[in-house]
Amino acid sequence: MDQPRALVIGGGIGGLTAAVALRQRGWAVTVLERAPELTPVGAGLGLAPNAQRALDVIGLGDQVRALSAWQGDGGLRAPGGRWLSRMSGKATADRFGGPLVLVHRATLVSLLTSALPEGVVRTGTAAGLADAGDEVRPAVVSTPDGELEAELVVAADGIRSAAREKLFPDHPGPRYTGSTTWRVIVPAPGRPFAPHETWGRGRLWGTQPLKDGRVYAYAMATAPEGAHAPDDERAELRRLFGDWHDPVPGIIEAADPAQVLRNDVHEMAVPLPAYHRGRVALLGDAAHAMRPTLGQGGNQAIEDAIVLAHHVGPAGAFGTAAESAAGLAAGLASYSADRLPRTTAIVRQATGTGRMTAVGNPAAVAVRDALIVAVSRFGPGLILRGFAGIADWRPPGHTYASGTPRQ
Fold it and tell me: Is 99 helix (H, G, I), strand (E, B) or coil?
């Protein structure tokens, strides 16, 4: 049979990773992105060892590791500056087989697109799922230029996924968590600082270095859904965090108000029954949107993409058209069975951590902080235990950095 076709709806991190992985498995891939250009929404993205090992499968893991900037100690602080727990980059790397690598989203997008031939990504192309297909019919995607048929459609169209709504119309979809986030990248401050996340009363701040010397800062606070600052979002950060420990005030003042991104946080509190239907696979936020409190949203999208390509197999591996259709159906079912339990557990864990950061009662905050201090006294092992089963995940198959392949 001819080379089978895969259409990817959405040119974000998950969609681009899926495109690279599927092409390496022999699929003819087209990415359909509605934006006029691939300008990533967001600022920084933390890639944990699990995502790095996933990227090893498509030959990009070591390029990501080369961007690591975290050296020495960091940890969790209180707004006045007191350290609640300390953590070293070495301890994290030793425990999970690699460092946490913070990258600008634009850097990762460039890395992924460089692995795709010219013409694979079609920008300025709004795409919608017209027919999910079945073992007889191909899937159909509508575009402004007409309908496209494909043996496989990857719906990586984000938290407000229209494809998900079409596949699972009775599902309640994502819900607002009660928190909003801000993200910004600023020039390096005049004095060095230890990477940190700071928890206050219903508020959170993080300051992390990038490889190029700039700083990625993020914040989260409880707020009504859809709220915005009456003036600008930098002024809102100043009101909420301007009296916190150094370097927080300086980071805020260094920010360009026009570059401060604000987004409400939504999560898929009710898991989907599956991550596929017909010939369509959902991945990333379209399948399992989660709070950013574990830093795993983008990481799980990357995992999804690699696992999906693994399960749908090398293109043409099943012989006749009928055999290929049956093989694809089995592969998509295996993808759902593989990814649904893992991502559902991570969504729930992120929810639990998010509730801890959202505590606003002073007495409850004091208890929370005391517990963190007590646990940290027993060493980094107990703190890192919360990421066991997440950051130490290994992709199916062999990679050049994953050691023993997962069976």
Answer: coil
Distance CA(166)–CA(129), nearest Å, equals: 8
DSSP 8-state assignment for residue 33 = -
CA-to-CA separations, 193 to 99, 242, 245, 288, in angstroms, rounded? 19, 17, 11, 34
What would the pLDDT profile of 314-344 be if each residue is shown by its tens digit?
866 667 888 888 999 999 999 999 999 999 9
**Distance linking the first and last C-alpha atoms of the chain:** 30
- Half-sphere CA count of 304, side-chain side, radius 13 A: 31
Residue-wise pLDDT tens digits, 166-224: 999 999 999 999 999 999 999 988 788 889 999 999 999 999 988 888 999 999 999 99
pLDDT score recorded for residue 89: 72
Is the entire prediction scored with pTM above 0.90?
yes
Helix (H) or strand (E) run with residue 31 in it: strand 28-32
Judge whether 282 and 129 are in contact, CB under 8 Å: no
Pairing status of strand 175-186 against strand 152-155: unpaired
Please state whether the peptide bond connecting residue 247 to the residue before it is cis, i.e. omega within 30 degrees of 0.
Answer: yes
pLDDT digits (tens, 9 = 90+) for 97-147: 888 898 999 999 999 999 999 999 999 999 999 999 999 999 999 999 999
Q: In whole angstroms, what separates CA 315 from the centre of its chain?
A: 27
Rounded to whole angstroms, how far apart are CA atoms 194 and 266?
A: 30
**pLDDT the model gives residue 403:** 45
